[in-house]
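User: For my dataset I need records formatted as: sequence, then structure tokens, nothing else. Please produce one.
Assistant:
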Amino acid sequence: MKHAAWMVAVMVAFLGTAVPAAVAGEPPRPGKKPVGNVKDVAALGLRCSYYVNGRIHVNVLGTPEGKPITVPPIKGQEDFKPSWSKTGDMLVFFRRVKNDPVVTNWKTVLCVINVDGTGFHKLTDATHTNFNPTWTRDGTNMPIWNRKNPETGSFYVMLSKVGNKPGQAVAISDKRYHTWAYTCLKDGRILVQSAHPKQGWGYFLMMPKAGGESRYERIDCELAKKGLLDRVSVSPSEKRVCFEYQTGFEYKDTGRTLYIADFDARKRTITNAKPFANEEADPNRWFAYPRWTKDETAIVYHASPSLYLYTLEDGSTRKVSTNPRADYRYPHGEKSPK
């Protein structure tokens, strides 16, 4: 793609972790389907991990939170974007240890913790900008994440093992050009956005290889020709994806529409995309971070400052967070790496 599109790709990676202030107001009504009551959701017993006011919680949707499973040791530090392992027993997340008005100047530590709050350990030190971790699905159960290259300002993909110490992670994409990992497949490939030096800007399935010599296979998606896909998540069956979308290539944080689409890993296609939240692209609300429940019957997401559950069978949407005064973000379904 042209140079301007490459710059867009880098900018999306930079700003994709931005955290706009919560926007007050009535609960959103995604599409034209009815919005149910939060009490109806609790009976489903759906467990998720998510952020509340800078802390990570594990909880049944529709019920009040207890104590968070993470509490940073230093005032002002916050924990972001948990991802639940496929084995169901661990979360990976990043801890912001140095704040800055420019998000990409943050310093963050990649951490792993058991879902019961035990076993906390750090995979990195605080010398890098590490963002948006998830897990491999190929049986290796390893965390991957995106790290800023301070020399170029772009990002590349890192991989480590549970129990590793800082400094033992390896790069699996080339540091010389931008690659941003979203989600993994059971065959070992990773769905990424990249400004590939030979194939151009776009979305790819990347077969990782330590040292950065990974193989990139382009994904065909009509929506990607007209705008930006972001925070893409592959369903547990790997037959569908959900993601944020905006028309046009000038990055916006609020006003995005959430989509669900068919996904074919063999043909490398994203097709039949349908909006399910903020179809009107209301520019005053932050709709973000759609993630699957483990049974693939629903998608949980945040619309500032609350969490909502979209049910595929009947197209209904229900508010699932219980504290109207708290800032909820980054939900993630049990045993469902993004």
